[in-house]
Specification:
By secondary structure, the protein is an alpha/beta fold. The protein contains 14 helices and 15 strands. Helix 2 links the parallel strand 5 and strand 6. Helix 5 runs parallel beside helix 7.
Length: 353
């Protein structure tokens, strides 16, 4: 095998390798991973690098150098986004690559032009029968396609590694709205914001939120962060430390979609979370299915025994609401309470409540 290395950009490198069979390709990619994966010491610290490899083969994929390079780049793009060590080019990548290149420009422009808007779904406290808070839900007010729901763009956000940018955008907008409501309505409304794994594991998350609270001059208790079970379980020690730091600031942390992930009793006991949100899949038939009632009752009893509050998602009729009230659920949200509201409609809702 012969290696002809070169540099494409800041962190992208190319190897032109002359091989004579498929086995040699496998050996070559493994050798590159091994070479780059060797640890080294810099400034008394051990540094370990990782890389992703995308490649194409002459003449199977093309005979022109420029086209082979482009197809290798598409394979690399796929490897990075899917978090796969090594990927070989395939024809379907061109369609996906063109789509992502186009949508990346649109999404970055949308973030810059504040095309993403927040809708707010009210949460009802079942003990006081008053508004407990709202959940911030992001929508894309596309200049040509109109209002787009998360299903139309979140997969692309994840593929392009733009989760952190969107999370930071939603946090900024939420804090701005909280400050506005305090000023206009003299109401300190708690806003729950979903945080992805990428943002939650960022060591700068806590300081970033501190900056936002100071910038908008809002109390920490008005901000609640919602994370999924899998987010914490990815690195439970770091996750617990982050939660404790946030709570020490006065920010509440809740587990979203409870029951759909790990649902380990051990981690539920140890995690210093404030609230558990029961996934809508358990609520859908709770007023008709005895098994679902038993599960939800057990979740509520367990959570209360551990000193955590419970909110049920997806409440869509009076039967579900009354049953949840009767078995001690603390709060609910869903279409029966209110659909996600624009800021203007929320203002009317606040006046009614």
């Amino acid at each position: 095998m012969f290696y002809y290395p070169g540099r494409l950009s800041g962190d992208s490198f190319v190897f032109c390798i002359e091989v004579f069979d498929e086995e040699q390709i496998d050996k070559a990619t493994k050798q590159i991973h091994e070479l780059l994966g060797r640890s080294y010491i810099f400034d008394s610290h051990e540094v370990v690098l990782q890389c992703r490899i995308g490649y194409s083969v002459y003449p199977d994929h093309d005979t022109e150098a420029e086209n082979l390079l482009q197809k290798s780049h598409l394979a690399l793009f796929h490897a990075v986004n899917k978090k796969i060590d090594t990927v070989v080019y395939s024809s379907g990548m061109e369609t996906q690559g063109r789509h992502l290149l186009t949508v990346e420009t649109e999404l970055r422009k949308a973030l810059s032009n504040k095309e993403f808007v927040l809708h707010f779904q009210p949460q009802l406290n079942l003990l006081t029968n008053r508004l407990e808070g709202v959940e911030a839900l992001v929508r894309w007010q596309h200049p040509e396609k109109g209002l787009l729901y998360p299903g139309a763009f979140l997969d692309d956000i994840e593929s392009l590694n733009l989760n952190s940018q969107l999370d930071e955008y939603v946090l900024e907008e939420s804090c701005s709205k909280i400050a506005h409501w305090i000023k206009i309505y003299q109401r300190k409304i708690t806003v729950a914001v979903n945080i992805t794994a990428v943002e939650f594991q960022d060591p700068l998350l806590v300081s970033r939120i501190q900056t936002l609270l100071f910038k908008h001059d809002i109390p920490a208790k008005c901000l609640e962060l919602e994370i999924t079970e899998s987010v914490v379980m990815t690195d439970i020690k770091t996750g617990m430390n982050t939660i404790v730091q946030l709570q020490n600031m006065g920010i509440k942390v809740s587990i979203d979609d409870f029951g759909t992930g790990y649902s380990s009793l051990a981690y539920l006991r140890d995690l210093p979370i404030d609230k558990i949100k029961i996934d809508r899949s358990f609520i859908q038939y709770v007023s008709k299915n005895d098994s679902d009632v038993t599960i939800v009752k057990a979740m509520i009893k367990l959570s209360h025994g551990l000193g955590k509050r419970v909110l049920a998602e997806g409440v869509e009729d009076a039967g579900q609401l009354e049953l949840l009230r009767s078995i001690g659920c603390d709060a609910v949200q869903g279409f029966f309470i209110a659909k996600p509201l624009t800021e203007e409609k929320l203002a009317k809702y606040l006046k009614r409540r």
